[in-house]
Specification:
globular, mainly alpha
Length: 195
């Protein structure tokens, strides 16, 4: 799977990361829009499906990040290796947190129809710190992916100033795909980097 993402063209990644989720999210959104003035069960189903579509969308982005970080890290000389246990924690924490949060929200939409929508203060006290750690984890992942790309490209130890552009291109991946993915294709095909 990693090699599939490393060798895919920029337009293929764009369709996968943005096109597929957009198509799947359009059904619930149009159902919600058409059912605003009615108490339709299709609208309730659409509300509960929307978080599932968000899981699909963010899951694809996380798979792309993982493929870039792990796949390209194999091309870095041993003295510059970047993948660590800390990276894996900060990669999986937001992924698991966001999946659980979306499942919770999906369940709340179903419960809203039955009981009314209520959020207790306790849930906010739990979500806020988890959300902050999750945000840090996402930024850490983008940081490491950008650093990995630039380390292979420059074949030396890099600092943030060297890969700040790659970091922001990953952050705004809907634009960055068009610049990052061709670079990834070239780096993945280069056999002379290291072994």
């Amino acid at each position: 799977m990693i090699n599939l993402f490393l060798k895919a063209k920029h337009w293929q990644i764009f369709i996968l990361l943005l096109g597929v989720p957009l198509i799947f999210q359009s059904y619930p959104i149009f159902n919600i829009k058409s059912g605003l003035n009615s108490n339709d069960s299709n609208m309730l189903l659409s509300l509960s499906l929307l978080p599932m579509m968000m899981i699909l969308s963010m899951g694809l982005v996380f798979v792309w990040f993982w493929s870039l970080a792990v796949g390209l890290n194999k091309k870095i000389p041993n003295e510059f290796k970047l993948i660590t246990t800390k990276f894996k924690f900060f990669f999986f924490f937001p992924l698991i947190y966001l999946i659980i949060l979306m499942l919770y929200i999906s369940g709340k939409f179903i419960g809203m129809h039955l009981n009314g929508f209520e959020i207790g203060n306790w849930i906010i006290a739990i979500i806020l710190p988890l959300h902050l750690v999750s945000m840090f984890g996402i930024f850490h992942t983008m940081f490491l992916v950008a650093k990995t790309i630039k380390t292979i490209e420059l074949k030396r130890k890099v600092n943030f100033g060297d890969f700040v552009l790659e970091f922001f291109l990953l952050w705004f991946y809907f634009i960055g795909i068009w610049i990052i993915q061709p670079k990834v294709n070239r780096l993945a095909q280069n056999k002379n980097i290291t072994q």
